[in-house]
Amino acid sequence: MNILIIHEVDWVKKITYEIHHLSEIFSLKGHNVFAIDIPDPGLFSLKKETWQDIESYNRIYADSSVKVFRTPVIPVKGLNRISAYFTSKRFIKNILEKNHIDIVFVYSIVNNIQATISACKEVHVPMIHRTFDIVHEIILEKYLQKKVLKIEKKSYPEFDEVIANTPYMKTWAEEMGGKNVIVIEQGVDPAIMQKLPKDNLLMKKFNIAENDKVVMYLGSILSHSGLEIILDAMPNILKEIPNFKLLVVGDGSHLLSLKEQAKQLGIYEKIIFTGFIPYKQVPKFCSLANLCINSFRINDMTDKLSPVKVFDFMSCGKAVLATPLKGMLFDFPKDSETIIYADLDNFEQKIISLLKNGSLEEIGNRSRKFVEDYFTWEIVAQKMINEFEKMKK
């Protein structure tokens, strides 16, 4: 098949994501895979990387090949997205026709979604939307939220099929007017996300002692991350476990406020802030942790999620303490005996008890086997291909 994946992020600059895993696995399965992105020029750039197509791209699997078409944009921050709105229709239609595309697998919902819908209808190419975020609820600018919600309501009825990652996202997509909505979960590659012995170089770099008790958070640091609750709990945790350290791997809009909070609480030296790291380095950082956490506050948006970082933690053989998001409870039910669930207000006592008495190694081993059996990217990719084949017919 000739498969076109359309997103509104910069394919190269975006942190390693589902689009990269699936596109490259589709390629390894013998399909011709193309992608359209919207290049990010930073503040301003005339470098060829912002406009030149990439003939053969991969970042995870060395033998894979994805051709990336870069949407023509004005290479100025902000204007790149506005200009993409106007240039995308003709650009997408031309690619559909020249490359005899059989299926369009689309992640976009704002900048180029109307262009995608229009082009696909004119060329008679089926569209499948991959849904795992409620985009209008993620946007910080209040004035844009209603506009994006309007786009969502207008777009979902136009898709030939929608593939959500949890039943709760399926329900939401149907509320937006989506038809033929199914669920295919996210995944992990256990060959990359391996269980490793503690990385001595990283321990030395971050001043982590052999007997330190390390709890790790991974990912974007946003208002719903819940990390300020963990920081507030740290003085009490440190009274019980003086060798406790918090490893925060990621970045985001709330990072600076977290750092300021840590200074005010007098615990800054007990927290290791690393910023974002390359995807393939995640197992080395996980090796430092006794326990990993997903401390998301539960709201209408987060409750529908099953964050892919949890799959990574589990594949690395780590026990995970998480708030009970409905999306996670679907993927990892309590009777699977994998995820340790607790309300955010109870994380303090749960962290103390788990680090003192918990059988974390056993839970981590059980978690790795669970994702190996049910949630690999290979399994996910084949399910997607099966849907593409049905839609192509």
Strand order of the largest sheet: 3-4-2-1-5-6-7-8
What letter string, H or E per element, gives the SSE order? EHEEEHEHEHHEHEHEHEHEHEHEHEHHH
Number of domains: 2
CATH architecture of the largest domain: 3-Layer(aba) Sandwich
Q: What profile does the largest beta sheet have?
A: 8 strands, mixed
DSSP helix count? 15
Q: C-alpha Rg, in Å?
A: 22 Å
Which ranges are low-confidence, i.e. pLDDT below 50, for 5 or more consecutive residues?
none
CA distance, first residue to last residue: 12 Å
Average of the residue pLDDT scores = 97
Name given to the CATH homologous superfamily of the largest domain = Glycogen Phosphorylase B
Shape estimate: globular
Oligomer: single chain
CATH topology of the largest domain: Rossmann fold
Tell how many strands the DSSP assignment holds.
Answer: 14
Report strand %.
15-25%
Helix content: 40-55%
CATH class of the largest domain: Alpha Beta
List the helices and strands and how they pair.
Blueprint: E1 2-6, H1 18-28, E2 32-37, E3 54-57, E4 66-70, H2 79-98, E5 103-106, H3 113-123, E6 127-131, H4 135-138, H5 142-155, E7 161-164, H6 167-175, E8 181-183, H7 200-205, E9 213-218, H8 227-240, E10 244-249, H9 255-265, E11 271-273, H10 282-286, E12 291-294, H11 308-315, E13 320-322, H12 326-331, E14 340-341, H13 347-357, H14 360-374, H15 377-392
Parallel strand pairs: 1-2, 1-5, 2-4, 5-6, 6-7, 7-8, 9-10, 9-12, 10-11, 12-13, 13-14
Antiparallel strand pairs: 3-4
Helix pairs in contact: 1-15, 2-3, 8-9, 8-13, 11-14
